[in-house]
Amino acid sequence: MSTRRSAPTLQAFVLHRYDWSESSLILDVFTRERGRLAVAAKGARRPYSQLRPVLLPFQRLALSLVRGAGGEAGGEAGTPVEVHTLRQAEWAGGLPMLASGAGEAVFRGYYCNELVMKLLAREDAHPVVFDAYAATLPALGGPDALHAQAALRAFELVLLRETGVLPALDTVTLTVQPVQPPHRYQLVPESGVVATREEAGSLAGAELLALHAALEAGDLARLQAACLPALAALRGATRVLLQAQAGQVSWRTREVMQGLRRLLDSAP
Fold first, then answer.
1. In whole angstroms, how far apart are CA 224 and each of 129, 171, 221, 230?
2. Which stretches within the chain are classed as H helix?
3. Burial class (CB in 10 A: 0-12, 13-18, 19+), 173
4. How many CA atoms lie within 13 A of 151 on its CB side?
5. Which of 18, 65, 187, 194 is the most exposed place for a label (fewest CB within 10 A)?
6. pLDDT tens digit sequence for 4-47
7. How far apart are CA 222 and CA 219, in angstroms?
8. How do strand 184-188 and strand 203-204 relate by DSSP bridges?
9. What is the pTM of this model?
10. Which residue has the higher pLDDT, 106 or 162?
11. CB 91 within 8 A of CB 61
């Protein structure tokens, strides 16, 4: 007598949602166990669907899927993407979602979503990035803007490291010499950690070593603290590395946020 196996439950966040037919959605979800997946949520747009208040960004979810039952959809480069069908979705608890906080916190959250969507391939699990993402979201909605920025930089560093882009921060890449605390360094795509005499846009060796130690320890709170004294230089450094990895694509969330700030600054 055969028994039917229940689908495994996946830890997940919704990164993006697309309308699909009059009553359904296609979701880009980030799961801890299987990475990014395309998921069809049938009937989720109906007014009385129990999924409507659940399938929202920045909420930790428990998903049960039927593999490949949703057909195919176009991927980022026009290639077919396997679409799974959502069987069940439940809120997995945790802190209130970012959407209930300040506007800038929501933009920061969507920026993290965009990073994951553009830098991580589908069906490629990255549990370290998932855990960092889940731990970063609460910090983005805090009252301290500097700590929120440090949380963003820390998440960028984890993502760059886990995708193999970030060089070892304790070593000058080309000479394989150890980083010296009083010296200044820059992070350069394809060249890694480079010694410099320039003060502007560079990081002190001591700052790089603190970041490296936190990354090696896998301690996100420690990494966020190490980012705080180097926020200005790190913002430029991570942006260059991320852009080199993403290619010619533009960061839509950043563009929208900059446009909104210009509009607010010009308002009477």
1. 15, 21, 5, 10
2. 103-119, 127-140, 145-162, 205-217, 220-227, 231-246, 252-266
3. middle
4. 22
5. 18
6. 445 689 999 999 998 998 899 999 999 999 999 999 999 999 98
7. 5
8. antiparallel
9. 0.87
10. 162
11. yes
Backbone region of residue 150 per phi and psi (left: phi > 0; alpha: psi in -120 to 50; beta: other values): alpha
Instruction: Look up residue 226 and give its amino acid.
Output: A
Q: Which of 54, 57, 49, 71 is nearest to 29 (CA)?
A: 57
Q: How many CB atoms lie within 10 A of CB 48?
A: 6
> Are 161 and 184 contacting, i.e. CB atoms less than 8 angstroms apart?
no
* Residue 130, amino acid: F
Alpha-carbon span 148 to 128, nearest angstrom: 20
Q: Are 120 and 36 in contact (CB under 8 A)?
A: yes
Q: Is 54 within 8 Å of 90 (Cβ atoms)?
A: yes
Instruction: Report helix, strand and coil shares of the chain as percent, to nearest 5.
Output: 40, 25, 35
